[in-house]
From TrEMBL:
Pfam families xrefs: Beta-AFase-like_GH127_cat, DUF4986, DUF6805, Glyco_hydro127M
Chain residue ranges for the region called Disordered: 670-690
A GO molecular function held by the record: hydrolase activity
Compositional bias per record (Polar residues), positions renumbered to this chain: 680-690
Residues annotated as domain Glycoside hydrolase GH146 substrate-binding: 657-793
Domain DUF4986: 550-633
Domain of life: Bacteria
Lineage: Bacteria, Pseudomonadati, Bacteroidota, Chitinophagia, Chitinophagales
Transmembrane residue ranges: none
Signal peptide location: 1-23
Span of domain Non-reducing end beta-L-arabinofuranosidase-like GH127 catalytic: 36-417
PANTHER family given in the database record: PROLINE-TRNA LIGASE (DUF1680)
Entry protein name: Glycoside hydrolase family 127 protein
C-alpha cells in the first residue's frame, strides 16, 4: 500500500513539475478570460452576486464527505441527504462554481474554499492509492460503493455498474471541477489531480472491448468524451484523444453525423453532453464526422425541439411530434441542466464558426431560461420550468436539495460575462448587450459597455484606455427588423449593408474616448409551441413575455429534502379554464399590445378578445417568481374556438379527476421516475411506442417499484398496458412479495393502442404501510406485458 501511495504522490509531483507556471487563460481560443470582463450594474451582476452569497451558505465538508468515505478516510461530518446514489455529484459542480467566481470576481472566500477542496481531494486520491492499489490510483470520485463498481468494471463485470445510478455521470462532475479549477485560476494542483484522474479512467476501461464500451455508454455518462478531449488539448498527449473517441457513444454519433434526428423519447440531458464532446473532438482532431455530429445536433435541437425560452425536454425526455402536447399537460417542463449544456455546445460551435445565429440562440436562452432559474432574493435554483398554463416553479434551498440542476445552477450565474466579447485574429466581436468592461490585454485597450438593455433599446461602447487598430464586429440581432439598427461612431452615422442575424464590421484605429452608440429597436413577435400550433408565446425582441396569474396553492415553493421536491406538485389548474386568445390575425395581436406607462417591458392587451378573461400584465418571464404564470397561450380563430374548447374541457375534466385520485405514480422506462421509485429489475428491457415509454420482463425476469401509499387503505392499482402484443403474456403482480393477481393479457387487445386495467388492492396488503413494493414477475418461458404507466389510486 505504501508503494502505491508513493507512486501516486510521485506521479502527482511529476505532473506539477511539468505544468507551466501559468495556466492558459482558456482551453478555448477566441474567448477572453473571465477575469478580463467585468460585469457592471444590471440584472446579470445582481444574479452573480446573489449566487455567490448562496454558494457560501453550503458546507464544504458535507460536500466532500462522500469522497472521504469512498477513500476510507474518517468522516469529518455527515454528508448531504437526498438523491441517494448520486452522492458526490454536487461537489464537482461546487468546485467549478468556486473557480468561476475566483476568476470573475477574485472573491477571497471562494478562493479559500476552492484551495481547501483541492487539498482534501488530494488526501482522498492518496488514500485511494494506498487502500485500493489494484484499481484506485488517481481516483478522485465519491460514487457510492466505488470499490465494488470500479474493481468489477475493470475486470469486465458490469453487474455492480448497472446496479448503481449513473456512475460515470457522477464522476464527470468532479472531472469538470478539477479541470475548471485549473482553467480559470491556474491552480497547478488541480491540473495534476485532473490528469491523474484521467489516467485512472483510461486504466479502468483499458481491457474493455468496443462492444463492452458501447454497452457501458448506454448508461448516462455526462460529458466524459469532452473531458478527455480537454486533457488532450492541455497536454498534447494522444492517449487522451483516443480515450475521448472511446467514450463517444455510437448510438448518437453515427445518426447525428449522417444528419438523422433519432432523438425522439431519448433522455435529453444524457444526449447534450455527448454532443458537446463530439464538437470538441471534431475541433481538436479536425474530424468531420465528430464536427458534423455536434453541429447537426445543435441545429435539430434548436430548430425543432426548443421552446420559446430556449429550453427543451418534458419529463426530461425529448418528446416525439405527437407527444408535444405534454409540454402543456405536464408540469415537468424543460430542465435547467439541458440549457446549461446547450449553451456550452453553442459556445463551442461559435468559436469555430462565429455566426450570429449561435449568439441569437445563446442570448435568448441566457435571458429567458438561465436567468429565470435563480430566485433573485434567496438565490434558490429551479429544476423544471413548467409550461402548463397557470402553473409555477419551485426553488432549492441551501443545504437541503441536491438536484442536478442545483449543481449546474451553481455554475450558471457566475458565467454571464463569458461570451459578451470574443476575439478572432485582428477583430473584436460585440456579441451580447450586457453592461460590462473589457480589458483586452493583448491590445492594451479597455472598452466599457454602458446599457440598461433590454429595458432600453440601446447600448454605448466607450474606449476608456489605449489605442489599437482592429475590426469591431457588432452583432446585428435576428430580432431587429431589416434596416432599423442604427449606429454612430463619435456622433457620425455608420452605413452598412448586412441583414439581421449577422455582424457589422467597423475597422479603424480605435483610441481613448472613441464612442460607439447602437440603437436596437425591439418589436413583438409570436412563436408557436413546437408541433402544437394552437399554443403561442409572445416575444419582445429576445425577451419572452409572460403574465403572473396568481399565488394560490404554491405547494413546496421552496423545496425541502423530499425525493420529489424539485417538482411543483401543487394543484394543476384546468387548462380549459385558463385565458384563451380568440384572434384571426395573430400578427395584428402582437402589434396591438399596449405598453404600461413608466414600466419598461410591461404590456397589456385591453382590446383582445379572450375566453376566461383576466386582467393580466405581460412582463419579462425572468422577472416572475413566487407565482403562477402563463408562458404559452391557447390562441384560436373565431370559427374554431368553441368546438375546440368543448373537446378540451371534457378531456381536462377526466385528466384532473384521475390526478385528484392519484396517490403515487411511476412511468416505467423513464430514467428519473424509475430512479425515484427505486427500480429493481432482472431480465428486463425498456422501449417506447407511439411516444409512450414501457418496460417488460421475460424468461423469469421481473421489475419492481417502491410506491407511496400515504397510509390510505382503500386503494386501487391502475396499470396501463400496450395493446396488440405478440406471444404469451401471462405474468404475476406482487405487493410486498404477496401475489395480488395472476394476469393473462395474451391476445387480449388485438388492436394497437394503450389500455388501462384497474385492480383492487386488499386492505390487509397495505395496512400500516407508508410504502409498498409492486413487482411484475414473468414466468420462466414467457413475458410480462409492456407496462406503460402505474398509478396507486384512491378507490
Amino acid at each position: 500500500m505504501r508503494i502505491a501511495q508513493g507512486l501516486a504522490g510521485m506521479i502527482l509531483c511529476i505532473f506539477l513539475m511539468n505544468s507551466s507556471l501559468h495556466a492558459q487563460d482558456s482551453l478555448y481560443n477566441n474567448t477572453f478570460s473571465l477575469s478580463d470582463i467585468k460585469l457592471l450594474e444590471g440584472p446579470f451582476k445582481h444574479a452573480r452576486d446573489v449566487n455567490i452569497q448562496t454558494l457560501l451558505k453550503y458546507d464544504v465538508d458535507r460536500l466532500l464527505a462522500p469522497y472521504r468515505k469512498e477513500a476510507g478516510l474518517p468522516a469529518k461530518t455527515k454528508g448531504y441527504s437526498n438523491w441517494d446514489g448520486l452522492d458526490g455529484h454536487i461537489g464537482g459542480h461546487y468546485l467549478s462554481a468556486l473557480a468561476i467566481n475566483v476568476a470573475a470576481t477574485h472573491n477571497a472566500e471562494c478562493k479559500r474554499r476552492m484551495e481547501y477542496m483541492l487539498q482534501e481531494l488530494k488526501s482522498c486520491v492518496d488514500a485511494n492509492a494506498a487502500n485500493n492499489p489494484e484499481w484506485g490510483i488517481g481516483y478522485a470520485g465519491g460514487v457510492p460503493n466505488s470499490k465494488r463498481i470500479w474493481s468489477a468494471l475493470k475486470a469486465g463485470d458490469f453487474t455492480p455498474y448497472h446496479a448503481a445510478w449513473v456512475p460515470w455521470y457522477n464522476l464527470h462532475k468532479m472531472y469538470a471541477g478539477l479541470r475548471d479549477a485549473w482553467l480559470y485560476t491556474g491552480n497547478q494542483q488541480a491540473k495534476a489531480l485532473f490528469l491523474l484522474f484521467c489516467d485512472w479512467g483510461i486504466n479502468i476501461v483499458a481491457t474493455l472491448t468496443d462492444s463492452q464500451m458501447q454497452s457501458m455508454l448506454d448508461t448516462e455518462h455526462g460529458g466524459m468524451n469532452e473531458i478527455f478531449a480537454d486533457a488532450y488539448e492541455m497536454t498534447g498527449d494522444h492517449k487522451y484523444l483516443d480515450a475521448a473517441r472511446k467514450f463517444s457513444h455510437n448510438m448518437l454519433l453515427a445518426p447525428m453525423a449522417a444528419g438523422t434526428d433519432n432523438l425522439d423519447n431519448k433522455h435529453a440531458n444524457t444526449q447534450v453532453p455527448k454532443a458537446v464532446g463530439f464538437e470538441r473532438i471534431g475541433e481538436l482532431a479536425h474530424d468531420p464526422q465528430y464536427s458534423k455530429a455536434g453541429s447537426f445536433f445543435w441545429e435539430t435541437v434548436t430548430t425543432n425541439r426548443s421552446v420559446a425560452f430556449g429550453g427543451n425536454s418534458r419529463r426530461e425526455f425529448f418528446p416525439g411530434t405527437t407527444a408535444c402536447m405534454d409540454f402543456i399537460n405536464d408540469v415537468e417542463g424543460p430542465e435547467s441542466c439541458n440549457s446549461n449544456n446547450m449553451l456550452k455546445l453553442t459556445e463551442d460551435l461559435f468559436r469555430i464558426n462565429p455566426e450570429a445565429k449561435y449568439i441569437d440562440y445563446y442570448e435568448r436562452t441566457l435571458y429567458n431560461h438561465i436567468l429565470s432559474t435563480q430566485h433573485p432574493v434567496h438565490g434558490g435554483y429551479v429544476y423544471f420550468t413548467p409550461l402548463r398554463p397557470r402553473h409555477y416553479r419551485v426553488y432549492s434551498a441551501p443545504n437541503e436539495a441536491m438536484w442536478c440542476c442545483v449543481g449546474t445552477g451553481m455554475e450558471n450565474h457566475g458565467q454571464y460575462n463569458r461570451l459578451i466579447y470574443t476575439h478572432r485574429n485582428d477583430s473584436l466581436s460585440l456579441n451580447l448587450f450586457i453592461a460590462s468592461e473589457l480589458n483586452w490585454k493583448a491590445r492594451g485597450i479597455t472598452i466599457r459597455q454602458e446599457t440598461q438593455f433590454p429595458y432600453t433599446e440601446k447600448t454605448r461602447l466607450t474606449v476608456t484606455k489605449g489605442t489599437s487598430r482592429f475590426v469591431l464586429m457588432v452583432r446585428y440581432p435576428a430580432w431587429v427588423k431589416e434596416g432599423t439598427l442604427k449606429m454612430m461612431v463619435n456622433g457620425k452615422p455608420v452605413n452598412y449593408t448586412v441583414s439581421p442575424s449577422s455582424y457589422i464590421a467597423l475597422e479603424r484605429t480605435w483610441k481613448e474616448n472613441d464612442v460607439v452608440d447602437i440603437q436596437l429597436p425591439m418589436h413583438n413577435t409570436i412563436e408557436r409551441l413546437p408541433n402544437v400550433p394552437a399554443y403561442i408565446a409572445i416575444m419582445h425582441g429576445p425577451v419572452l413575455l409572460a403574465a403572473k396569474t396568481g399565488t394560490e396553492h404554491l405547494t413546496g415553493l421552496v423545496a425541502n429534502d423530499s425525493r420529489w421536491g424539485h417538482i411543483a406538485s401543487g394543484e394543476k389548474l384546468p387548462v380549459d379554464k385558463a385565458p384563451v386568445i380568440v384572434e384571426d390575425n395573430l400578427s395584428a395581436m402582437a402589434d396591438g399590445l399596449v405598453p404600461v406607462k413608466d414600466k419598461p417591458l410591461a404590456f397589456t392587451f385591453p382590446a383582445l378578445k379572450m375566453i376566461n378573461p383576466a386582467k393580466l400584465v405581460l412582463e419579462p418571464f425572468y422577472q416572475i417568481h413566487d407565482a403562477r404564470y402563463m408562458v404559452y397561450w391557447m390562441a384560436l380563430s373565431g370559427t374554431q374556438y368553441q368546438t375546440y374548447l368543448d373537446s378540451l374541457a371534457a378531456t381536462e375534466k377526466e385528466r384532473l379527476a384521475l390526478q385528484q385520485r392519484t396517490i403515487d405514480f411511476v412511468a416505467p422506462g423513464e430514467q428519473q421516475p424509475e430512479a425515484d421509485h427505486n427500480i429493481q429489475s432482472h431480465q428486463s428491457r425498456t422501449g417506447s411506442s407511439s411516444d409512450e415509454f414501457w418496460r417488460e420482463a421475460a424468461n423469469g425476469g421481473y421489475f419492481s417499484y417502491s410506491m407511496a401509499t400515504n397510509r390510505e387503505t382503500n386503494i386501487q392499482l391502475m396499470v396501463r398496458y400496450q395493446g396488440a402484443e405478440r406471444g404469451s403474456r401471462k405474468f404475476d403482480i406482487y405487493i410486498d412479495g404477496e401475489r395480488l393477481v395472476s394476469e393473462d393479457n395474451t391476445a387480449r387487445w388485438k388492436q394497437p393502442g394503450f389500455f388501462n386495467v384497474t385492480y383492487t388492492v386488499p386492505a390487509a396488503m397495505i395496512k400500516d404501510k407508508d410504502r409498498i413494493s409492486i413487482k411484475f414477475q414473468s414466468p420462466p418461458q414467457g413475458s410480462t406485458s409492456a407496462v406503460c404507466y402505474i398509478r396507486l389510486l384512491k378507490k
